[in-house]
Amino acid sequence: MLYIVSTPIGNLGDITLRALEVLKAVDYVASEDTRKTGMMLNHFGFKKPMLAFHEFNEEKVLPRMLAILEEGKDIALVTDAGTPSVSDPGYLLVRGVIDRGLKVTAIPGASAVVTAVVLSGLPVYSFTFRGFPPHKGGPRKRFIGADKESPYTLVYYESPYRLIAFLKDALEILGDRQVAVANDMTKMFETIYRGKISDVVVELEKEKIRGEYVVVFEGVKKAGHSEE
């Protein structure tokens, strides 16, 4: 069976008991970064045979993983942090497992998307997750603009290298609406920057931008719309 196992997004104390049980029991653990995953497993006191499975080798490794599953062995798929397949490799493997009539299940747990949304202070009755925006300015602006009139809270991932540029493009395209920018969630130095986009940009330009960020924008307020 293939197990899609969520792992902590920062604080290792957020691992679930079921996740630990599965990770101990499976034949292989497939991960983006075997070094990081090995350190996590070592923290909990065990080791497992590991398979490197990331965006650069996903299609190449996929047949081998499916063959292992067809032999009746179990694989746990993990990502560097959070829930696999959410802006990370995993979809092709899950699709392949389903198409072959093999078994797959998920071990739920930490998610950076959900954690950031609930910490944002913005409406959570409905939100749209957009993943990572394009790297270059033109495509990025068009990507942002596709949701300009959306009434739903918008959620993006962004790297430290493009965070400021992304926020400035969002300010231009979306206007100066409310935003929450989350970093180091669940860790000792968890930080959430909240306020108008223009104010958050000024604040972030004074900081050292490190680690990946989750950016949450408020949606367009529609006349007569209520959260109830």
CATH-scheme architecture of the largest domain? 3-Layer(aba) Sandwich
Written as H for each helix and E for each strand, in order along the chain, the element string is EHEHEHEHEHEHEHEEHE
**Biggest β-sheet, characterized?**
5 strands, parallel
Give the full name of the CATH homologous superfamily of the largest domain: Tetrapyrrole methylase, N-terminal domain
Rg (CA only)? 19 Å
Q: Which residues sit in consecutive blocks of at least 5 with pLDDT less than 50?
A: none
Distance between the termini: 41 Å
CATH class of the largest domain: Alpha Beta
Binned, the helix content reads 25-40%
Total individual domains = 2
Structural category is alpha/beta
Shape: elongated
Q: What's the total helix number?
A: 8
Report the count of strand segments.
10
The neighbouring-strand order within the major sheet is: 3-2-4-1-5
What does the average pLDDT come to? 94
- Strand content is 15-25%
Describe, in short, the structure shown.
With about 230 residues, the protein is of the alpha/beta class. It contains eight helices and ten strands. About 35% of the residues lie in helices and about 20% in strands.
Question: How do the helices and strands line up, and which of them pair or pack?
Answer:
Blueprint: E1 2-5, H1 17-25, E2 28-31, H2 34-43, E3 50-52, H3 58-70, E4 75-77, H4 91-99, E5 104-107, H5 112-120, E6 127-131, H6 137-145, E7 153-158, H7 163-174, E8 178-183, E9 191-196, H8 197-204, E10 213-217
Parallel strand pairs: 1-4, 1-5, 2-3, 2-4, 6-7
Antiparallel strand pairs: 7-10, 8-9, 8-10
Helix pairs in contact: 3-4, 6-7, 7-8
